[in-house]
Amino acid sequence: MDVVNGIILVCGIFILYQTFMMKKEKRIPEGVFVTKGTVIASDADVEGFINYVCKKSILLGILGCLSGIGGLLEESYPRYSILYSGISIAFMVWLVVFMVVIRKAQKKYLRAV
Q: Are 13 and 65 in contact (CB under 8 A)?
């Protein structure tokens, strides 16, 4: 289980990194927030997409990091297992919500085909 928690931690860090790079460079990383090969309309509101998605993806990255760290520490600190379980459930629920948010944002701001 430590491998899975390590992967979740790395994914959380990666999402945070990609979010900050997206905000800094004002471009959407392909394969992270849009699928590879997505055709973005020429009149797309990229800035609006970035602003809409930024805080939500930061929350996803933070929850991923907390879930991964909690899973790695769970065996050493079993009294906090209820806290870890709560964070893991919050991460999984937010991941599903985030996927819906991304899909709606792509249609609204990028007019992705």
A: yes
